[in-house]
Write a structure and sequence with these properties.
Elements (H helix, E strand, L loop, with lengths): L1 H15 L5 H18 L4 H9 L4 H11 L10 H21 L4 E7 L5 H13 L7 E8 L2 H9 L1 E2 L9 H7 E4 L2 E4 L1 H6 E5 L15 E6 L8 H14 E9 L12 E6 L2 E6 L9 H18 L16 H16 L3 H10 L6 H13 L3 H15 L3 H13 L3 H14 L4 H14 L2 H15 L4 H7 L5 H11 L5
Parallel strand pairs: 1-2, 1-7, 2-6, 7-8
Antiparallel strand pairs: 3-5, 4-5, 8-10, 9-10
Helix pairs in contact: 1-3, 11-15, 12-13, 12-14, 13-14, 14-15, 14-16, 15-16, 16-17, 17-18, 18-19
The structure holds S-adenosylmethionine.
């Protein structure tokens, strides 16, 4: 019997990489005896032959399931989730928005009955208000088929919520006969697949380009050597700057890879170091910058001659007055006068006066000049909701509608109370005939109409009053009660 047990152990170790400690060996003996009795194969050799044969596939799967019963629950290790929500996701999202890349790929490896994967989907919807306009893929894999079947159903008992705040449970699950069912929209975000992490040939091609990989409390099943090999595949499947979440006791293996341990409250999360990124080229950067400056200087006429009655450097209030007056002229449709006024003080420009110059170029259909202003604004002020909105206006003027929509969403992502992008989206969807999205956007616009910051409201709303805009929106559709 001992020999047979060992053969069976070797079979599972070789084929699936399982590592059996003494406790597990005892459990295995007990389990094997029961199984042999149940299927009537008392002879040990025959039983081993049976599970290795084609006809014994189901029995083999039964044993796999039994060996890998996965303890898990929603938001397990709450500190990792806290770091994910407050630090890691915001970092990834900011980086993606800067690259105009609205996609997110996450892999929950060893997902067991799905609690980890659904926790990910929930956090995403909590943190990205317009997650529907992102391409979000959560791939959830496990070796254990019955765990995956359970996960696909998305129905859980109270026990799965031991670390879940009540408000999350009540918001995203419906209770029926003492069980909790996840809302179906979350199921659509996740693809459950069976995958044996122990592989001699690597994983299928689509296991690549992940922004985040969760592989928690899985590597503990494997011998050190196999755990390292598994992590090597995962490392290769991770994007540069991507993150990997391991279980508490699994971090030691990470030191063999180019993974930087990042320390958060009560947790360590690993980030892949950017190894392939080309070296920073100061010369190229300088050249681009100088060329850009040249274009801006050509576009903006020279300052008028010094006048004896005014000091050379404009004061702050001079600049404010110039901006206010130029905005007034712009809103009255006197675009050339507004431009002249701004050209008087083309130094020390504030964000809003630069954007006003850019909006004037859009009105004049000089899209190239508007783009130059956009670049300059980004260089000086980084990405603000207003710069995203300005970029969206440029795209709209170029008739690049999907980019314009993305720009509006980016602006809203950075500041949900920004009225104008909601309004603009309403207008775009109206033209596209997309009633549902139009109504949603106009509804959001109305919600923020009276709370938005008045300066940017004045800049983007071309002199229209809040009363006018309210009547205008309401005239387009009847609001739901
Ligand atoms: C303890 S659960 C972890 C669940 C979840 N990741 C967590 O931390 O809450 C471990 C999971 O690893 C899976 N597993 C074990 N060996 C595996 C293998 N070779 N390939 C894929 N999954 C495996 C088991 O089936 C089990 O569902």
């Amino acid at each position: 019997m001992k020999q047979i047990d060992n053969n069976i152990l070797s079979f599972f170790t070789n084929r699936f990489g399982f590592h059996f400690d003494e406790d597990k060996k005892n459990h295995l003996k007990y389990l094997l005896n029961n199984r042999k009795k149940k299927i009537g194969l008392i002879n040990d050799k025959e039983y081993l032959k049976f599970i290795c044969s084609h006809g014994g596939k189901d029995e083999c799967q039964y044993l796999i399931n039994a060996f890998t019963v996965g303890e898990t629950y929603f938001f397990r290790n709450k500190y990792q989730w806290k770091a994910l929500k407050s630090k890691i996701f915001p970092e990834i999202i900011k980086r993606k928005l800067n690259n105009n890349d609205l996609s997110l790929r996450i892999w929950s490896a060893g997902c067991s009955t799905g609690e980890e994967s659904y926790s990910l989907a929930i956090i995403i919807t909590e943190i990205i208000s317009y997650y529907q306009s992102w391409k979000i893929e959560i791939l959830a894999t496990d070796l254990n088929e019955s765990s995956l079947d359970y996960a696909k159903k998305g129905v859980y008992t109270e026990n799965a919520f031991r670390d879940t705040p009540d408000n999350i449970k009540n918001k995203y699950f419906s209770k029926r006969r003492g069980k909790y069912k996840i809302q179906s929209s979350f199921k659509k975000m996740i693809t459950f697949e069976q995958l044996n992490l122990i592989s001699n040939t690597g994983y299928p091609k689509h296991y690549a380009s992940f922004d985040i990989i969760f592989c928690r409390n899985v590597l503990i099943y494997f011998s050190n050597e196999i755990a390292k090999k598994t992590l090597r595949y995962m490392y290769n499947a991770l994007n540069n700057d991507g993150y990997i979440f391991l279980g508490h006791t699994e971090g030691l293996i990470a030191k063999d890879f180019n993974l930087k341990p990042l320390s958060f409250e009560n947790s360590i999360i690993y980030q892949k170091q950017d190894v392939k990124f080309p070296q920073f080229q100061p010369e190229t950067f300088k050249k681009n910058f100088i060329e850009q400056e040249k274009i801006i200087k050509q576009r903006i006429p020279a300052k008028p001659q010094k006048n004896n009655h005014k000091s050379e450097t404009p004061s702050k209030s001079d600049l404010n007055n110039t901006y206010d007056s130029a905005l007034q002229l712009f809103n009255l449709g006197k675009i050339d006068d507004a431009q002249k006024m701004l050209n008087k003080h083309n130094e020390n420009q504030s964000l809003y006066s630069l954007l006003l110059v850019g909006l004037i170029y859009i009105q004049k259909r000089d899209i190239h000049a508007a783009q130059v202003i956009l670049k300059e604004t980004q260089l000086i002020y980084d990405l603000t909701p207003e710069t995203h909105m300005f970029g969206a206006r440029i795209h709209e003027a170029e008739n690049k509608i999907s980019e314009a929509i993305t720009g509006c969403h980016n602006a809203i992502f950075l500041d949900q109370s920004f009225f104008y992008p909601h309004f603009r989206l309403g207008e775009i969807y109206r033209k596209l005939g997309e009633q549902g999205k139009m109504k949603r956007s106009f509804n959001n616009a109305l919600k923020n109409l009276h709370i938005d910051n008045s300066e940017r409201f004045k800049l983007f709303c071309a002199g229209y009053s809040t009363e006018f805009l309210e009547d205008y929106i309401k005239s387009i559709f009847v609001l739901p009660q």
